[in-house]
Design brief:
Layout: H1 2-13, E1 17-20, H2 28-40, E2 44-47, H3 56-68
Parallel strand pairs: 1-2
Helix pairs in contact: 1-2
């Protein structure tokens, strides 16, 4: 279900690269499933290090910092 939602959003918005972070994505099984599902559709998955994925707030803060520091 997670992969289907991501694939749908990628198609709708023309996205080809996906960054994952947060507690759920620390799970190796979920990482492998999403990586394989996206690769089959020609999309690339990137995963934050597990040390940065324990809390969504860390990932959101990192993305916000990057966006607003430009």
């Amino acid at each position: 279900t997670l992969s289907k939602c991501i694939l749908s959003a990628c198609k709708e918005y023309g996205v080809h690269d996906v960054l994952f972070f947060g507690g759920v994505i620390c799970n190796e099984y979920i990482r492998e499933i999403t990586r394989a599902s996206l690769a089959c559709e020609g999309l690339t998955a990137f995963y934050a290090g597990k040390e940065y994925s324990g809390d969504n707030a860390c990932g959101v803060a990192s993305c916000a910092y990057e966006l607003f520091s430009r």
